[in-house]
């Protein structure tokens, strides 16, 4: 007997991958853990009989000759598979996309890659082997793919995930059904927790990233805390959030990040958990570490990461070309032509930034003789500046908010460099400045 199984608190990517495995491996039976996410439970209550699925207590582990593990690589995350763990005659195949955390399942065949969703790995197999799937299977696979990639929007999404979505849509995946299960309505208990989080929000900035961190005591069961945390991050508009949910015996940490600089999976791995760049979690016994200690530890990991991350000081241009306030507009224009630049800083006494003049400001000149006027008559005063520790993301955000293309970098009151749109584009897209 071949069985495919996945992690407890089964999400749609896990369910979809189990179902995909039952199709890719002839004769394979899917074994779904008893504890599944709420929207997965809703789906199963109406669709279960359409698939070849059983519960862990419905199989006889002595009959299992091959085990397919999907969307996890850790034994303790499986439901009642301990008897199989110590069998040395068991063949194991592993399909997963979690790259952090300790992997302890030793498989004979491993398909483990950084990709948006595990189910994409199975879709690749289906395309390769020209396996046809019906609309129902396509739909559940698409739900798994969309849930794990945030509808192909999470930074972990790869081109292959998008191609997998195309394949599933070609095979008649139903977006109405998918939309229904991907956007479950919020429950009263979830709203209460969200409200509690909003009340106790501690917002801070570490390494140029805005951060929300909370400790929340749970006195009752709340389903799908992960999507509450997701919602919370969006509402408080933080680059990353960490929420430590505490019950009588354990702390459950859920992290979400929208910043390239904060890798949730790596941070959670330090607490025995795991996840991806953008999302992850960890469960810690209170006797091992108190919630307050966890919080302090997360903050110190984030602070330590500072040395490794890119700051604006690393990507700025220098030396900065500048003129004095009395330089004529004609001289400024000649300088900009010669240096092929779009803006020049105006620096006064004691190296003070007096203003900036950009190509656009030349449009203010109406009469020829104005070219003899000093730059201080045309420059823009009130120049927005950055500190060298600013993150490239924050710098880009400042450019958008202030609608400026030049941001001088200032340290101890002195200008040490400048960041232009070209620097930002070069950083984000690896484009070479022209
Ligand atoms: Mn997954």
From TrEMBL:
It comes from the Bacteria. It comes from Desulfomarina profundi. GO terms for biological process: tRNA processing. The keyword Nucleotide-binding applies. Residues 316-375, 379-434 form the CBS domain. Keywords: CBS domain, Magnesium, Metal-binding, Nucleotide-binding, Nucleotidyltransferase, RNA-binding, Transferase, tRNA processing. GO terms for molecular function: metal ion binding; nucleotide binding; nucleotidyltransferase activity; RNA binding. This is CBS domain-containing protein. Its cofactor is Mg(2+). Belongs to the tRNA nucleotidyltransferase/poly(A) polymerase family. CDD domains: CBS_pair_DHH_polyA_Pol_assoc.
């Amino acid at each position: 007997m071949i069985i495919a199984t996945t992690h407890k608190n089964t999400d749609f990517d896990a369910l979809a991958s189990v179902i995909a495995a039952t199709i890719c491996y002839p004769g394979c039976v899917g074994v779904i853990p008893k504890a599944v996410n709420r929207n997965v439970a809703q789906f199963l209550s109406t669709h279960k009989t359409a698939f070849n699925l059983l519960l862990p207590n419905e199989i006889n582990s002595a009959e299992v000759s091959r085990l397919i593990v999907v969307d996890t690589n850790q034994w303790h995350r499986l439901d009642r598979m301990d008897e199989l763990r110590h069998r040395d005659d068991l063949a194991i195949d592993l399909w997963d996309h979690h790259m952090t955390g300790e992997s302890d399942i030793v498989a004979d065949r491993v398909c483990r890659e950084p990709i948006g969703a595990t189910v994409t790995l199975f879709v690749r197999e289906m395309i390769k082997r020209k396996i046809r799937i019906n609309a129902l299977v396509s739909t559940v696979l698409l739900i798994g793919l969309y849930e794990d990639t945030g509808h192909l929007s999470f930074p972990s999404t790869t081109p292959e995930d998008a191609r997998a979505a195309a394949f599933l849509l070609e095979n008649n995946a139903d977006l109405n059904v998918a939309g229904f299960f991907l956007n479950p309505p919020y429950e009263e208990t979830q709203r209460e927790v969200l409200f509690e989080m909003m009340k106790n929000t501690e917002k801070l900035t570490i390494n140029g990233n805005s951060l929300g961190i909370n400790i929340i005591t749970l006195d009752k069961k709340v389903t799908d805390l992960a999507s509450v945390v997701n919602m919370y991050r969006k509402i408080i508009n933080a680059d990353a959030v960490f929420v430590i949910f505490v019950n009588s015996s354990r702390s459950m940490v859920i992290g979400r990040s929208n910043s390239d600089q904060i890798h949730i999976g790596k941070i959670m791995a330090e607490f025995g958990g795991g996840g991806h760049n953008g999302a992850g979690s960890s469960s810690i016994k209170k006797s091992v570490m108190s919630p307050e200690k966890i919080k302090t530890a997360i903050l110190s990991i984030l602070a330590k990461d500072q040395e490794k991350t890119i700051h604006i000081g690393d990507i700025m241009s220098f030396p900065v070309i500048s003129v004095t306030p009395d330089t004529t507009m004609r001289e400024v224009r000649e300088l900009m032509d010669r240096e092929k630049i779009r803006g020049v800083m105006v620096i006064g006494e004691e190296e003070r930034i007096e203003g900036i003049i950009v190509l656009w400001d030349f449009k203010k000149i109406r009469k020829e003789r104005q070219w003899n006027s000093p730059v201080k008559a045309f420059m823009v005063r009130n120049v927005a500046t950055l500190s060298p520790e600013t993150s490239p993301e924050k710098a880009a955000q400042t450019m958008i908010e202030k609608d400026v293309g030049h941001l001088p970098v200032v340290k101890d009151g002195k200008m040490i460099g400048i960041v232009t749109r070209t620097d930002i584009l070069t950083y984000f897209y690896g484009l070479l400045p022209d």
